[in-house]
Amino acid sequence: MHVEKSSDTKVLVKRDNAGLLKIPVIIKNDTNDFIFDSEASLSAMVKSLAIKYGVKIMKDKIKAVSFTGKNVESEIGIIDLKIGNIEIRNSVFFIVPDSVLSFGDGSYRIKGIIGLPTMIPLEELTIKDDKYLIIPKTPEYSSSRNFAIDDGTPIILVNYKNDILPFDFDAGSSTTHLYLPFFNKYKNMIGGYFKKRNIEFNEFGGHVKTKTYFIDSAMIAAGNAQSMLYSVPIWTDTFRNGQKYTYGNLGEDYMNNFSEMKINFNGMNVSFSGKKHSF
After folding, report:
1. Which stretches of the chain drop beneath a pLDDT of 50?
2. Which of 72, 133, 138, 182 has the largest count of CB atoms under 10 Å?
3. Which positions ≥6 away from 72 have C-beta within 8 Å?
4. Closest CA relative to residue 58, chosen from 70, 31, 37, 76
């Protein structure tokens, strides 16, 4: 993949009905809104869009693995695209059936996803006021490191009850979830606040049912950015191997409490500023 940044870029973004961030992606002079998903191991596009734009598709099919470990039969496409005035050439995308990114009996459809491998070469991204994606030509230097990438999964350090815990960094999830290691570590301390019920949700690759605990509230912080989350789900099922070692995923319900989120891949730092709400 080759990236050309001729100058700073600032583009308008928006949130959809699911609360997920969509960014304008230009392909052959057409603009389509793609989901911004930091935990996606590869960018993705629905097959109908790939056909429309004559995307070069490799012959062999592969298995794309979803958030909960489901395998989805996919193809690989090579795509040239633009975000603002930034040109991205030979970007690798999963090409998936349209049905894979269609939810709620087709009432909610995703055309494409900008995932981690497409983000990293951009070096630094700032989401500001839920209105703008800002990508500087030259990224800032950061000496504070709270971010890593482990086997394709972005990891951010989170403070909970003065413990520093590794969380998946998931800007493509509307909700923060806590995993089995969190439950095992804190169940004796806050066991009386756990409530258990069955939940169902749709995700890339299908429908999931699981028994889930909920904690009434949790005060968490990434860096110096502290925020209270309410009715936080705790999955005691382990859907994929990485969930055995991280304590949760940091989702949009946390990120939306701040007016600015900056991801710096050069300095491996994620920072939040400008708190929107007081609790």
Report:
1. 279
2. 182
3. 63, 64, 65, 66, 96, 100, 204, 205
4. 76
- Which phi-psi region, left, alpha or beta, contains residue 104 (left: φ > 0; alpha: ψ -120 to 50)? left
In degrees, rounded to 5, the angle at the alpha carbon of residue 225 between the alpha carbons of residues 223 and 231 is: 115
Q: How far is CA 223 from CA 103, 155, 265, 269, 271, in A?
A: 35, 13, 16, 9, 7
Q: By C-alpha distance, which of 276, 275, 278, 273 is closest to 261?
A: 273
Q: How many angstroms separate the CA atoms of 22 and 25, rounded?
A: 9
CB 244 within 8 A of CB 180: yes
Which amino acid, 38?
A: S
243 and 18 Cβ atoms separated by less than 8 Å: no
Q: For the purposes of burial, counting CB atoms within 10 Å of the CB of 252, is it exposed (0-12), middle (13-18) or buried (19 or more)?
A: buried
- Rg, Å, the chain Cα set: 19
What are residue 114's DSSP bridge partners? 36
Is pTM, for the whole model, over 0.85?
A: yes
The DSSP line for 204-251 is TTEEEEEEEEEEEEEEEEETTEEEEEEEEEEE-S--SGGGGTS-EEE-
Q: What is the pLDDT of residue 279?
A: 45
DSSP string over 37-52? -TT-SSEEEEHHHHHH
Model pLDDT for residues 36-63, shown as the tens digit of each residue: 998 888 899 999 999 999 999 998 887 6
Instruction: Sort strands 43-46 and 86-96 into parallel, antiparallel or unpaired.
Output: parallel
Report strand pairing: 71-83 vs 86-96: antiparallel
Kindly state the DSSP code that residue 187 receives in the 8-state scheme: H
Token pair listed for 65? 């693995």
